[in-house]
Amino acid sequence: MPAATVVEVQNLVKRYGDVVAVDNISLKVKKGKILSFLGPNGAGKTTTVEILECLRSPSSGIATVLGLDVSNSSDQQKIRQRIGVLPQSFNTFGLLTVKENIEYFISMFGFRKQTDADSLIRLVDLEDKKDAHYRTLSGGLKQRVGIAIALVNDPEVIFLDEPTSGLDPKARRGVWSVINGLRDSGKTVFLTTHYMEEAEALADSVIIINNGKIVAEGPSSELIVIHGGARSIVLKEPGDSIVKAIRAWNSNTWFDGNSIKITMNDGSDVAKIVDLAQEYEFDLSNMDITKPNLEDVFLRLTGRTITEDGGTR
Ligand SMILES: Nc1ncnc2c1ncn2[C@@H]1O[C@H](COP(=O)(O)OP(=O)(O)OP(=O)(O)O)[C@@H](O)[C@H]1O
Ligand SMILES: [Mg+2]
């Protein structure tokens, strides 16, 4: 039997005055899957998730969560009881410990199932820190407290809005393993992110949103095959003269100031680059051949790339 649809959106629009933050999007998320909703700053990610969380109302279109209508006030109450939310820029009581924070939210919202703080602490791998004051934790550990709090009502769907924003790569991986654990326990996860690597690493399927519109969707491996293009030759820290020579020879290049990327047509391109490297004394140990990734997908679809801080260039 195919998995049930847990989140469904049809022709959803949200306007703020003249700004169309969400521009006629449709999507589905199946039970037990992780969806990465990937897009740069201002793409419309938070607006979409907050509509699904019944925090904002749509301008038009339909959105259902667990078969319940986000625009219907009696359904809203039921949706809130069955979902978990980690808001963007999550924060909680700094002077309470990890365990006290979680216990507080259990006493407020843990009405669906008798959840206990210790098992949530174990789930997010914070046993060592359970008696530490929240304000003393690193960013990655704070986010894990946020995920534990999002789980106090044993939700069926969890919305995580940029759960690893601003974290260093190691802390990010720690949060990823917690998110993978959620999928393993059968939860459905709706994750927003501007990190391509995160979308690729975690999600069963990815939706790319830009300027309020969905520009691509599917498993990341499929998106890469369909939209990613060919392999590329990458030269790290090339000198100005070789960059100029490469551009004169091949217009299909991308230079970000640190490295130049040349989309390959065929194997003879490698020979050409090796020749140029000799001519311009470029050290070939700084050359790589890379497969396309989600970054290439976004670049080919929008002509831009998402930067570390979520902007585009
Ligand atoms: N309450 C609001 N009033 C007016 N405009 C808003 C409001 N909230 C969001 N917007 C605008 O709607 C657009 C989408 O914003 P949204 O916060 O949904 O994007 P986002 O993808 O979550 O971005 P970020 O990565 O920065 O969190 C932006 O142009 C934003 O300025
Ligand atoms: Mg946002």
Offer a few descriptive terms.
11 helices; six-stranded mixed sheet; Rossmann fold; 313 residues; 14 strands; binds magnesium ion; alpha/beta; binds adenosine-5'-triphosphate; 35% helix
In short:
This protein has 313 residues and is an alpha/beta fold.
Task: Describe this structure as you would to a colleague.
The chain has 2 domains: 5-226, Rossmann fold (3-Layer(aba) Sandwich), CATH 3.40.50.300; 230-291. It has 11 helices and 14 strands. The chain has helices spanning 45-52, 73-82, 98-109, 117-123, 139-150, 169-184, 196-202, 220-227, 240-249, 268-279, 294-302; strands spanning 5-16, 19-30, 34-38, 60-65, 68-69, 83-86, 157-161, 188-193, 205-210, 213-218, 232-236, 253-255, 259-263, 287-290. α3 packs across α4 and α5 runs parallel beside α6 (169-184). The structure holds adenosine-5'-triphosphate and magnesium ion (MG). Magnesium ion binds at residues 45-46, 88, 161.
